[in-house]
Amino acid sequence: MLEQLQIILSEAIAEISKATSLEDLDNLRVSYLGKKGRLTLAAGKMKDLSKEERPNAGKKLNETRSKITQSLEEKINHFQQIEDSKERQSLDPTLPSNPIASIGRHPISQMLDQAIKALRRMGFSLASGPEIETEWHCFDALNTPQDHPARNESDTFYFDDGKLLRTHTSTIQIRTMENTKPPVRIIAPGAAYRRDEIDATHLSQFNQLEGLYVDKDVSLADLKGTLEYLLQNIFGKETPVRFRPHFFPFTEPSFEIDILLDVEGKKSKWIEIAGCGMVDPDVFNEICKARNDDSYSPEKVSGFAFGLGLERLAMIKWGISDIRLLIENDLRFLGQF
Ligand code: PHE
Question: Which of these, 186, 156, 184, lies nearest to 168 by C-alpha position?
């Protein structure tokens, strides 16, 4: 047995040294170390040896295997280096590299950055909240009764446990007041979800930017000034902004905000871009109950809130005609911003 192993080893080494390609080496590996290789067959004969002979033969077998493996690897490395250097010779390092696509930020991110920058200048700080919400945070605390259409299953995504995908970021108004004493001055960007048919102006997931300011003596004039500054910062200093009376369950009075849009060659048009209003006293009362204190008592504080649709802002700003373009990730579209 020991002799046989010695023969296998010296023949293997001789053949490996004569190999002229990686393919040769792979064939040698199979013929010596493979399932039916010479060394494997020799190992099969171990069982015929006597107990005394076995340990020695086992040791020799392992040595033979590792020597063959090592010499195979050395030769493989040798061939690999030759191939690598051939490749290097055919490489021209002075050629210009492939251009890396540089297309800037997504229009929604740009819109958001600009809005946040303007609002920070007025002292607002960022807040956030979960996208999976309780009915209480999304509706009850916002003075939206059980029979309100927004609560319908056909308008909102519910989970089996009664939670839901928030239909607006106004939930963050509630979460902020639950956890922080006034004064609060926050902006909260985030996704909102509605069971809308997807078309050129609707997605079932979209992005809003919520704002809330609560302090002593906050007035409608503060609301108007803040939003005019914000919108003129985004759309230009001269842009006319109009507040039109509207209804939201959680603000009183409530308004929709329009801006006058000038499109070259067309008649200017008022376009609705946000909802807003003074925080309804019922919302403050509900917060007092939840906090179990009177820090948000409508006798002590007042406030305003607003919600902007970011897709809508971007569509108006850049004249994008189909909201779906914003989520398709088509570089030909995104490269234009
Ligand atoms: N949450 C309202 C919506 O999604 C917008 C809004 C926010 C209105 C804050 C008033 C105050 O339509």
Answer: 156
CB atoms within 10 A of CB 33: 16
Helix (H) or strand (E) holding 333: helix 331-334
Give the atom of ligand 1 at the shortest distance from the alpha carbon of 304. 11
Residue 4 C-beta-side C-alpha neighbours within 13 Å: 13
43-57: per-residue pLDDT in tens?
Answer: 888 888 888 888 888
Query: Which atom of ligand 1 lies closest to the CA of 169?
Result: 1
Are 68 and 20 within 8 A, CB to CB?
A: no
Angle formed by the axes of helices 310-318 and 220-235, nearest 10°? 40
Q: How many Cβ atoms sit within 10 Å of the Cβ of residue 174?
A: 24
The residue whose two tokens read 């050129």 is 200
Query: Which pair of tokens denotes residue 104?
Result: 């800037």
To test the pocket of ligand 1, the residue of 142, 226, 248, 278 to mutate (highest count of ligand atoms within 8 Å of its CB) is: 248
pTM of the model: 0.71
pLDDT tens digits for range 260-319: 987 777 788 898 999 999 999 999 999 999 999 999 999 999 999 999 999 999 999 998
